[in-house]
Each structure stands twice: as C-alpha cells, then as structure tokens.
Design goal:
1 helix, mainly alpha, 0% strand
Length: 51
C-alpha cells in the first residue's frame, strides 16, 4: 500500500510540474491575448488594472 501511495504522489507531482511548465511558457501569450480581448470588448485600456 505505501508503495502505491508513493508512486501516485510521484505521478501527481510530475503532472503538476508539467502543467506548471506548460503554463509558464504560455503565460505571457495568454495574458497578452486576455488583455487584447478585454481592450477590444470594452473599447478602453483596462490593462493597468491587471496584476
């Protein structure tokens, strides 16, 4: 039983690491796209309100 929990934990950690890396690589691209969507939808520049 403990061995299964260890391997499950390792698999979860690897999956989270892969997701975090994928998001980190695309974070700026996604954020830029969100900024452009907000700007085009509202007609004003709301980027300064984003963290």
């Amino acid at each position: 039983m403990p061995g299964e929990f260890i391997w499950t934990g390792v698999a979860v950690l690897l999956a989270l690491l892969a997701i975090a890396t994928w998001l980190g690589i695309r974070e700026t691209r996604i954020r830029k796209a969100l900024m452009e969507d907000v700007r085009s939808a509202s007609g004003t520049d709301l980027a300064y309100q984003w963290p």
